[in-house]
């Protein structure tokens, strides 16, 4: 089978920037050195580019998990051009196809089932899907966003201006243009590229399938550190409309923190979250499945499997009861004063079901730990 044509512009950009980052930057560091101001500027630009992709390109425009003020959208649009990862329109189109056809080698633009190299960078080096490079039917909603279309129209000018202009201006101000071009320009760009690309590659290979096995996406806390919270990818692929990726308080997700902080400032609105009961049920279903597989060869498999299913069914039943009364309670709270609710029979029922659910969770956890 004949391979698609090489996209020499992409190959040149990726190769040259990587060689400068791998050779010229260390050489400059040894022979000349970088001061703390230059390093801080490079880190700041890396964070700006990364968060523009995660909070802007990904969670805002690709998945519409929240709404943002025009001023914030402009900041994201400029940061995305600075990150040199194509326009919002093109990036979002690719990403929506990826989610709709994940792991389908014929349709998914960066299918992980075609291997690490392909999903990480190979898919951008050849004209694998040239037939749809200008087909944006799946992002018609974004074509109504004036900022998206402005960035798409002027993308080349913006990306050249920002990737050369910011390092040059900083270097001129700081008194070392060469160091600034290498550190703020080249190294920052390479790190921005490959940490983002890890989500397409490593996050579909390395980690846990906490919520679903229907696709290759994985949850990986270490990758979350490198990608501003995007490492909880298994959660994201089953709950893609949630503005969060790391849903626990201890999970590293600065993109979530940024979006929430901007909400307090009035810059973001309509933050979407997934129902708690659906998240918990998805996680428990995976625990049940793995426990059943583990017990299949046990001498007392039939008896243990029956007990496991009984504990699972009891827990799901109590989860349904608990979240049903919780939803009803929240509705009631909206309709009447808190004081009245606290005195109501519904509050007593809520507290009772909450206690029962806690006890059932302990029973389930105790049984699962005994199987370990």
UniProtKB/TrEMBL annotation:
Residues 41-260 form the Fatty acid desaturase domain. It is found in: Membrane. Its main location: membrane. It is a multi-pass membrane protein. The keyword Acyltransferase does not apply. Keywords: Fatty acid biosynthesis, Fatty acid metabolism, Iron, Lipid biosynthesis, Lipid metabolism, Membrane, Oxidoreductase, Transmembrane, Transmembrane helix. The gene is oel1. The keyword Repressor does not apply. The chain crosses the membrane at residues 6-27, 39-58, 155-174. This is Acyl-CoA desaturase. InterPro entries: Acyl-CoA_DS, FA_desaturase_dom. Belongs to the fatty acid desaturase type 2 family.
